[in-house]
């Protein structure tokens, strides 16, 4: 469907998933809030039937997301990013083996642990930037993994994976590959084009983009995998609300502008932070010295707008920074128009290999000089004694 449009992603974000163009038709489709649909007799495959199976507002968002990720089948939208991850993991059989990055969204790891206890999944954590180590774990002792989970850049350490090499190596031994593309967005990286089998998104973040919706999506080129994911959504019931789907599609229209602006600002801020005397370390793939820089330059159409920052002075300095900002908002989440920051290890579920003093910054679309001035004053505020 979307492979052949030939349009740029910025244009697709504005035009995909629109109602049919005919005289008198609305330009923007209204949300359809019905829980059921008129029908009788044997169900036809093309009728929606009931609100847990289908909804016209999902269809529009699913078409738009598929066009952006260049997927051959419509996306499957879910109630949250976690519901999307859960649905994608349902392709792994009970007792199966999954290889997953050491640094990935913290609840991805927690869900896999839970599935380990309940369904006997074997989970192996790896440094996703170390291609040889990842592929050795995928091959195992002659018993290849069922699924390689990839996140790139990773949350919150911003490691960059060599996606084409990982897909080729995993497929060579029959291992499927799923990619959490939340941080990059389809503006910056389209994993299906690198051969990935499944892509998941926390639509909550950049795609919806306005910090007013929790939603997820799964994408694939393969009809059988899509059927599996849809069956999981219908049976487990983690469906998207039509109102949330409508808000997400509305937010998606400005994705290109938001991503371009916020990642340009992130590169400026990362460079200035790296020079600041109160800063110990900055992680952002735009920095020439960053471990992910070369790979991101080769594989991605941008460097994203999340920054990892370790101020001098340890946890106290990190907490003081978060408390001293006035324009930036101390809050979890990312990818919205507002700039947010938080110390990640405040969560007990965050990986113990993430430094205690790491502050994750999500750069929004405010003026970059205002963002810098606020960070500068906050870095100069001394931590309180105690
Ligand atoms: C937030 C996030 C998720 C979880 O998505 P929710 O919409 O919060 O359920 C998954 N992966 C990444 C990379 C995230 O940042």
**DSSP strand tally:** 12
CATH architecture call of the largest domain: 3-Layer(aba) Sandwich
CATH topology of the largest domain: Aspartate Aminotransferase, domain 2
Largest sheet: 7 strands, mixed
- Give the topology string: H per helix, E per strand: HHEHEHEHEHEHEEHHHEHEHEEEH
Q: Provide the number of structural domains.
A: 2
List segments where confidence is low: pLDDT < 50 over at least 5 consecutive residues: none
Strand content: 5-15%
Helix content: 25-40%
CATH superfamily assignment of the largest domain? Answer: Type I PLP-dependent aspartate aminotransferase-like (Major domain)
CATH class category label of the largest domain? Alpha Beta
Mean pLDDT: 96
InterPro entries: Cys/Met-Metab_PyrdxlP-dep_enz (IPR000277), PyrdxlP-dep_Trfase (IPR015424), PyrdxlP-dep_Trfase_major (IPR015421), PyrdxlP-dep_Trfase_small (IPR015422)
GO molecular function: transferase activity
Organism: Actinotalea lenta
Cofactor: pyridoxal 5'-phosphate
């Amino acid at each position: 469907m979307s492979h052949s449009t030939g349009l740029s992603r910025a244009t697709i974000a504005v035009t995909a998933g629109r109602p049919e163009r005919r005289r008198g038709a609305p330009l923007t489709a209204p949300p359809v809030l019905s829980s059921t649909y008129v029908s009788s007799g044997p169900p036809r495959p093309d009728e929606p039937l009931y609100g847990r199976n289908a909804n016209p507002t999902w269809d529009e968002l699913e078409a738009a997301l598929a066009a952006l990720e260049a997927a051959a089948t419509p996306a499957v939208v879910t109630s949250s990013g976690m519901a999307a991850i859960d649905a994608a993991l349902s392709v792994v059989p009970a007792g199966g083996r999954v290889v997953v990055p050491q640094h990935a969204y913290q609840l991805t790891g927690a869900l896999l642990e839970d599935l380990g206890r309940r369904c006997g999944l074997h989970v192996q954590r790896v440094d996703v930037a170390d291609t040889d180590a990842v592929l050795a774990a995928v091959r195992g002792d002659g018993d290849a993994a069922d699924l390689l989970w990839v996140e790139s850049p990773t949350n919150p350490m911003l490691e960059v994976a060599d996606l084409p090499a990982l897909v080729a190596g995993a497929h060579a031994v029959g291992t499927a590959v799923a990619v959490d593309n939340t941080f990059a967005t389809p503006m910056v990286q389209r994993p299906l084009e690198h051969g990935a089998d499944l892509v998941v998104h926390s639509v909550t973040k950049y795609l919806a983009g306005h910090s007013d919706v929790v939603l997820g999506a799964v994408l694939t080129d393969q009809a059988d995998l899509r059927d599996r994911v849809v069956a999981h959504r219908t049976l487990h019931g983690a469906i998207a609300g039509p109102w949330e789907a409508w808000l997400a599609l509305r937010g998606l229209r400005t994705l290109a502008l938001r991503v371009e602006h916020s990642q340009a600002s992130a590169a400026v801020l990362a460079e200035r932070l790296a020079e600041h005397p109160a800063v110990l370390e900055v992680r952002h793939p735009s920095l020439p010295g960053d471990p992910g820089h070369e790979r991101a330059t080769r594989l991605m159409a941008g460097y994203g707008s999340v920054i990892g920052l370790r101020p001098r002075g340890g946890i106290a300095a990190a907490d003081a920074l978060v408390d001293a900002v006035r324009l930036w908002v101390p809050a979890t989440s990312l990818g919205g128009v507002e700039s947010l920051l938080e110390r990640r290890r405040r969560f007990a579920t965050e990986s113990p290999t993430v430094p205690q003093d790491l502050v994750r910054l999500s750069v929004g679309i405010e003026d970059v000089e205002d963002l810098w001035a606020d960070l500068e004053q906050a870095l100069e505020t001394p931590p309180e004694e105690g």
